[in-house]
Amino acid sequence: MNEENNIILPEPTLRRLPWYLAYVEILKANGVENVSSTQISRALSVDASQIAKDLSFLNIRGKTRIGYEVGALIEALSDFLGFTRSHKAYVIGTGSLGKALIRDSGLSNYGLEIVAGFDVNPDIIARTDLGVPIYHLDRIYEVMESNPASIGILTVPAQSAQECADTAIGAGIKAIWNFSPYRVKVAEGVVMANTSIYAHLALIFNRLEERHSRN
Hints:
By secondary structure, this protein is an alpha/beta fold. 46% of the residues lie in helices and 15% in strands. The protein is globular and about 60 Å long.
């Protein structure tokens, strides 16, 4: 939902909007000033009428024979998706994936500011080379007082996922971005998004096996 416009988008639409944004950002970098839904459709393999419908949720409409103004479309999409506003986050579980996310400076371009990491491994907690402080998870309540965040990025093993999510939410975290292979449960009112690397990996493996068996 966009609070300013009080719009609740269907989830499939919300998932497609970042695709449109990424494409028109490429166009802008190449000096393109206008783009039609047909051009976007060809590039992204999304029906042109669906693109027009998706953008209409944001009150974005193209002009006849001109299409959408690329700069204005980038601004509208970025603002609606929340990428122009800063959202503070903690990474909970600073193993290989957690460290990679902390070091991914590109996330800040989309409004995600990782301000701290949490772990239970003393060796990881002692690290000072990640650019943000790493604390023991027991200190999350304390850190929320001095440097609060609204998003908890969960990159812990499956057996620890629910407990870590409960701890983060108990400390005041309002949204969980779950990278763990376990589908955690959250209380009503807490925003939840699952990004299952393992599920998509299984899908890739399965489709590869299907193709191999057909050949």
